[in-house]
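Our consortium's second objective concerns turning raw sequence data into structural hypotheses that experimental partners can test. To show how far this objective has progressed, the report includes one record in full. It was chosen at random from the queue rather than selected for favorable results. The single chain below, 258 residues long, was entered without modification.
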Amino acid sequence: MVTIDLSGRHALVMGVANHRSLSWAIAQQLHQAGARLCLTYAGERLRASVDELAATLPGTLTLECDVTRDETIDAVAQRLTSEFGAIESLVHGIAFARKEDLEGSFVATPRDGFMSALDVSAYSLLNVTNRVLPLLEKNGAGIVTLSYLAAERAVPSYNVMGSAKAVLEQSVRQLAYELGPKRIRVNAVSAGPVSTLAARGIHGFTGMLKQHAERAPLRRNVTKEEVGACGLFLLSDLSSGITGEVIYVDAGYSIMGW
């Protein structure tokens, strides 16, 4: 049995909202492998929840980071420079679209709603990576972000988030090309539907779960633990030759033509 040992390494994990978050599933796996973590929260509303989760992983740091405010990203980078010295793993699990832009007609998406979704869900990967780059390039690093099949297919009610995920996946490829010489690998995990806080905001999500389980080759939905395990793999030396890829963890649903 191969054991992943990340002792002495550091990870910045963004996008944890509660215990159902896929970012949290990856964080748990990283901690179990020996990495020291920093979890960020977007604002005071989420602070208590993230602090409570962090308390279960000894040595974990929590910091505020609203990716729409550059000064908070810079503050995280400054704190981690003094606290960690380097970052070997970055987990980007941040996504947001306004409720009304997911429930309405896609063709009627207003400019501000479209820009907000892309800013938080896609541009933040570039912006955060750029602002913590000195920490990532010290020892080389792995970056993992979270995508979904709607990046390449039409999914009812996913609307502008599908557009944001498409931009996110292109960003993965472009960043992988640009950062490869710095020994920084960039990949995405495209997970099947999992009952997270964000997923519950999608109209018809329960039906989506049922349809997925019926059509996927494995005839079931995936678990957040399975997504977390893939994240750990992509952030470990076991995937040292993999970059710029979108890895599907969806029980095979994405291969089906019906």
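The partners drew two points from this record. The mean pLDDT is 94. The CA atoms of residues 65 and 104 lie 29 Å apart. Both points have been shared with the crystallography group to help prioritize constructs.
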